[in-house]
Amino acid sequence: MPTPHTSMDHDDPPGPLQVRTVWISDLHLGTPGCQARALMDFLREVDCETLYLVGDIIDGWQLRRSWYWPQSHNDVVQKILRKARKGTRVIFVPGNHDEFARRYVTHNFGGVEVVDDCIHVTADGRKLWVTHGDLFDGVIQCAKWLAYTGDTAYEFTLKLNRWFNRARAHLGLPYWSLSRYLKLKVKRAVSYVSDFEVAVAREARKRGVQGVVCGHIHHAEVREIDGILYCNDGDWVESLTALVEHADGRLEIIDRSDALWRQAAAPVARAAQAHVDLPVSVAARNAGG
Fold first, then answer.
1. Fewer Cβ in 10 A, N or C end of the chain?
2. Residue 130 pLDDT more than 80?
3. Residue 239's domain is classified under what CATH number?
4. Dihedral (Cα; 72, 73, 76, 80), 10-degree rounding
């Protein structure tokens, strides 16, 4: 009888990346596009006082269409709960894909606090408004059916991207994101990203804070917009990025996208090794016979 899978993560030593705060969003657990293994590596590596989950952690839209929940996704959830048990303050700000969690605002689940949005004060005294950002997306607010259609098209693009990058790995080429390329090259997509960033920064100004941290558009960035510090922590589908705050209040984007190349290249390397080893093993058998 096979033994049930258990995580090998129960007694993690302190990670090498020691920071004050971590923001991650758009994990999209429950979809094939979620890079759960790379995310687990990051969560093992980082130690922080506060971990913000800035929306679209679980993809309720996709799970309603078809159930997809491998063990690696469950491991991510267990790792986050383990961090909460060990003293990390974990704050969950739901997004549009996990909007079902908004009905549980002010509740606490296993040490995870659920809030609509919140204010984070950095070590150097700056106030940052933390929100997923979907409330400033005109498509989500005014034409939700179009957002659902776009989500389906996005999933198709990600599937195409996985096949494309397997071919690139065979050629020894690094990972390349098709969807990110399209966002940066298609004029309407560029305009959409810019409009979103300006709208979020404008709302932060109205709230009297110095900056904002959000997710939603899968585009990691730290920049100033009209005197407001705009920070987007990216995603764990194509960018593999997180925003961290160091002990002195300095903010930095952490990029783990190289993990996608290593993941794609590993089967190629194993296949190449098997191809090399085969004649040796055959020769050895022949010599022995």
1. N
2. yes
3. 3.60.21.10
4. -150
